[in-house]
Design brief:
Elements (H helix, E strand, L loop, with lengths): L1 E6 L4 H9 L7 E7 L3 H13 L3 E7 L5 H14 L4 E5 L5 H14 L2 E6 L4 E4 L6 E3 L6 H7 L3 E2 L10 H12 L1 H21 L3 E3 L2 H4 L2 H12 L3 E4 L2 E4 L2 H22 L6 E11 L5 E10 L2 E8 L11 H16 L4 E6 L5 H9 L2 E5 L6 H9 L2
Parallel strand pairs: 1-2, 1-4, 2-3, 4-5, 14-15, 15-16
Antiparallel strand pairs: 5-6, 6-7, 8-12, 9-11, 10-11, 12-13, 13-14
Helix pairs in contact: 1-2, 2-5, 3-4, 7-9, 7-10
C-alpha cells in the first residue's frame, strides 16, 4: 500500500496535483490539518475520494507547538509500517514542514516538494530527481480543491462563422471603432433595461457615419437588423454578444486555436462558480495550463466614467478572485478593448495582472504564448 502525507494549507493545488498524478497516485492520503484549515481539508478530501483515493484526516491541536507536531507525526509512523510512504512537504506552515521532515527522515520516508513554476515534484533526498506532474486535472477537480463548485454546465461559445469577419474587423480597427461601439453598447443596454429587443435611434445617432458603418457590420453578421432608424436585436444572446460577448468569443476562440501549443488541459467561458457560502462569481474565460489556473476578464466598456466600473476596482477584484479560486500560483489577465492609463498599468503590474489593451488585441495569440510560457 502506498500513502502520501500532505500538509494542508491555502494552496490546494500543491497537494492535489501529485496525489492525482498517474505515476505518484497513492492508495491513501493522510491530511495533516489545523483547525483553521479544516474547510480546505474537506474540499481536498472530496476531490480525492471522487478520484478513488482513500482519505484520512489527522487534526493538529496546535500547529505552533513543534513538539506536539512531532508527536502527531510519530503516531502516524507507528501506523504505517511496511508501507511506501511519501511526504509532500509543500503545504502547511514552516513549523509543520520542519516537524514533518524531521520525523520523515528518521522513518526513511520519501520526501518531495512541488515546484509550482516548473510543475515538477522534486525529491529532497536527490534534488536531481524531478518528476514532471502530468496534467490530468479538470477544472471542476481543481476548483473543488479550493472549495468551489460549478453552478451549471461548462459553456463554450458556438463558433458562428458569420461572427468571425465582424470580430476581425473590431479587433483590427480598434482605434476607429471605439466611439461607435460605445454608442451601440448604450443602445443595447437601453433595450435591456426596458425588457425589449428594439430601440429607435435619435437624430444624432442616425446621422453618425461611424455608427452606421458599425451597425452594417453587425447586421451582416446576423446579430441585429436596422430599418427606418430602428435597431432590432435578433435575440437575447445576440444582444449579449453586442454588449461584449464578441470579445469573450474572440478570446476563447484564440485560446481554443492555440490549445495544443499552450498546453491547455481544460477551458470554459462564462463559468459561474459558487463558494461554500453560496457566493457566486462569473469568470469570462478560465483554463488550466501547466498545472496553473488562468483567469481572464474581458472589458469593452469605458472604465473612466462615473457610472462605469473603475479600472482599479476591476484589477483589484480580478486579483482577489484569482487568488481565492486558484491559489497564489494562479494567474489573471485583463483584456480591455480600450487603453488604460499609466497608473492603472502600474497597479496591474503590482498585482501581477497581465494586461492586453486596445491595439495589442491584434497580437493576442502571441500575448497568450508569452503569458503562459514555453
Amino acid at each position: 500500500m502506498t500513502t502520501q502525507i500532505c500538509l494542508v494549507s491555502d494552496q490546494a493545488a500543491a497537494n492535489l496535483l501529485p496525489a492525482l498524478d498517474p505515476a505518484l497516485k497513492p492508495d491513501q492520503v493522510i491530511l495533516l490539518v489545523s483547525a483553521k484549515m479544516l474547510p480546505r481539508a474537506e474540499a481536498l478530501a472530496g476531490v480525492l475520494r471522487e478520484a478513488g483515493v482513500q482519505v484520512r484526516q489527522v487534526a493538529l491541536d496546535d500547529e505552533h507547538n513543534y513538539l506536539n507536531l512531532q508527536n502527531a507525526m510519530l503516531d502516524i509512523v507507528d501506523q504505517l509500517t511496511d508501507q511506501r510512504v511519501m511526504l509532500n512537504i509543500t503545504g502547511g506552515t514552516k513549523l509543520m514542514a520542519l516537524a514533518a521532515q524531521s520525523v520523515a527522515i528518521e522513518a526513511d520516508w520519501e520526501i518531495f516538494y512541488v515546484d509550482a513554476d516548473t510543475g515538477e515534484a522534486i525529491w529532497l533526498s536527490d534534488p536531481s530527481r524531478r518528476h514532471p506532474l502530468e496534467q490530468h486535472l479538470r477544472l471542476r477537480h481543481y476548483l473543488g480543491g479550493y472549495g468551489f463548485s460549478i453552478a451549471a454546465g461548462m459553456q463554450q461559445p458556438s463558433a458562428n462563422p458569420r461572427h468571425q469577419d465582424l470580430i476581425r474587423t473590431l479587433v483590427v480597427q480598434v482605434g476607429s471603432m471605439t466611439t461607435a461601439l460605445s454608442q451601440l453598447n448604450w443602445l443595447a443596454q437601453q433595450t435591456e433595461s426596458r425588457g425589449a429587443l428594439r430601440i429607435k435611434m435619435d437624430e444624432r445617432q442616425r446621422d453618425s457615419r461611424s455608427l452606421e458603418t458599425l451597425l452594417r457590420n453587425f447586421e451582416d453578421a446576423g446579430v441585429l437588423a436596422v430599418e427606418s432608424g430602428q435597431i432590432t436585436f435578433a435575440g437575447e444572446a445576440e444582444r449579449r454578444f453586442v454588449k461584449g460577448g464578441w470579445l469573450e468569443e474572440h478570446v476563447f476562440s484564440t485560446l481554443a486555436r492555440n490549445a495544443g501549443a499552450l498546453h491547455v488541459r481544460d477551458k470554459a467561458c462564462n463559468l459561474e462558480v459558487i463558494d461554500s457560502s453560496n457566493v457566486k462569481n462569473e469568470l469570462d474565460a478560465v483554463f488550466l495550463a501547466r498545472n496553473r489556473l488562468h483567469i481572464i476578464e474581458c472589458k469593452t466598456a469605458r472604465m473612466d466614467q462615473p457610472e462605469a466600473p473603475k479600472a482599479n476596482d476591476t484589477l483589484f477584484k480580478l486579483a482577489e478572485i484569482s487568488r481565492r479560486i486558484g491559489g497564489l500560483a494562479s494567474r489573471g489577465m485583463l483584456i480591455s478593448y480600450r487603453p488604460l492609463g499609466k497608473a492603472e498599468k502600474q497597479l496591474a503590474s503590482a498585482l501581477r495582472i497581465e494586461l492586453v489593451c486596445a491595439g495589442e488585441l491584434v497580437n493576442l495569440d502571441q500575448r497568450m504564448h508569452d503569458w503562459i510560457g514555453p
